[in-house]
Design goal:
The chain has 392 residues and is α+β, with helices and mostly antiparallel strands. It has 11 helices and 18 strands. Helix 1 runs antiparallel to helix 3. The longest helix is centred in the N-terminal third of the chain and has 15 residues, at 34-48.
């Protein structure tokens, strides 16, 4: 799991750190930099999977990854796994429209607070075409610059122990799942599948593709989480194969609008908000222990009166599945629904008036927070602009 993410000269950030908890909310105005944090997490997940740095799909393309006045950018994460606590950092620069690694390193924390270097990679000179990778054992290796060293070590003649540790970190980064459900893509038939698409388009295929006994249990739990959403009584949400070959599936819902009168309809008649909520719950229920699920505008399309139900679902599923959830939101009602005990898990992103760079601050560290809380809810602070780093 990710404990923290440090961003240096990444897009709109000069030097900032996001602390990640089991349930983390990121708030801030439009263009403050929230989506740039999501892009950084997506970038790390892709390069840990072996994607060339230049081929990672990010908003704005590779030309916009490095802050305009900087020559290089870096991302660093603290990763907590069953094998220990790790620190991973990758620094890169743009050369001839290619994104290439300038340096990369991985360390393992010891019980006394010190760190053991597992590998360190860097350029030996300004004209170097490959990275020099150093291992404490004395082994040296010339590595490619367009693919993370993290994914190249598997093919090296290094100890199995080192490969296991490196794989553990790579697996944690690969388990970052950026989820942005698109209701318009969820209304059609979808092929049976065992992995949820990042836009939720194959949600019916994932549910219908479960083994019969698991599917029944899954649908019952899904229905329980979604039941508070509609005005009328929700009886059941389910998916089933369709067509001659039963290779595609459709999502269905049954509600009781009049006492004793059941109405059934498929995803084509469901509202955007309902489909997004169903997709988010499905993504969390389908997650594996240790995954990090990142959801932009988690409450998009949801009526403000249902913010409490969303918060309860996120908390309950996060605990039950053993996953971390990172969500961005503009909704002050949702922030108020979190309750005072969640203040420590809210980060506020804003632009500095002095530098124009994005900055991240824990809400609990906001200046005069106690005075503000005596007069406003956190949601009120959002709408009144009282949380920006330059607010008086």
């Amino acid at each position: 799991m990710i404990k923290s993410l440090a961003l240096k000269n990444w897009k709109s950030f000069e030097d900032a750190r996001l602390w990640v908890d089991p349930l983390t909310f990121i708030i801030g105005t439009n263009a403050a930099g929230k989506s740039n944090i999501v892009d950084a997490l997506s970038f790390l997940s892709c390069i840990a999977s072996g994607t060339r740095l230049s081929d990672v799909p990010v908003r704005g393309g590779i030309d916009g990854l490095i802050r305009r006045t900087a020559s290089e950018a870096s991302l660093a994460v603290e990763v907590v796994t069953d094998k220990g606590d790790f620190s991973y950092e990758i620094c890169f620069q743009a050369e001839d429209k290619e994104l290439l690694i300038h340096s990369e390193k991985l360390s393992l924390a010891q019980s006394d607070g010190k760190r053991d270097l597992l590998f360190s990679a860097s350029l030996t000179g300004p004209e170097a075409s490959r990275l020099s990778v150093f291992f404490p054992s004395g082994l040296l290796f010339a590595a490619r610059r367009d693919v993370s060293v993290l994914t190249q070590i598997a093919n090296l003649n290094v100890s199995d122990e080192l490969k296991i540790l490196v794989d553990e970190v790579a697996a944690s980064l690969k388990s970052i799942f950026i989820f942005d459900p698109k209701p318009d893509k969820m209304r059609d038939y979808s092929p049976l599948a065992d992995k949820l698409a990042s836009d939720g388009s194959n949600i019916a295929g994932v549910i219908a593709g479960l083994p019969d006994n698991r599917q029944k249990e899954f649908e019952e739990q899904l229905t329980d989480y979604v039941r508070p959403l509609p005005d009328k009584d929700l009886i059941k949400i389910w998916a089933e194969p369709v067509g001659r070959f039963k290779s595609d599936a459709m999502l269905y819902c049954a509600e009781e609008w009049v006492d004793g009168e059941k109405t059934e309809f498929d995803a084509r008649a469901m509202s955007d908000g309902s489909l997004r909520f169903i997709a988010i719950v499905t993504a969390l229920m389908s997650a594996r222990r240790g995954d990090t699920i990142v959801i932009e505008e988690v409450d998009n399309g949801l009526h403000p009166s249902r913010a409490g139900e969303l918060v309860m679902a996120l908390k309950a599923l996060g605990r039950k599945k053993g996953i971390d959830i990172i969500s961005t939101t503009h909704n002050p009602v949702l922030i108020d629904a979190l309750g005072p005990e969640m203040l420590q898990f809210i980060s506020y992103v804003s632009r500095s008036e002095a530098t124009g760079c994005s900055e991240i601050r824990l809400l609990e560290d906001a200046p005069d927070l106690l005075r503000l809380l005596a007069n406003y809810t956190p949601g009120d602070m959002m709408t009144r602009g009282l949380l920006s780093n330059d607010a008086k």
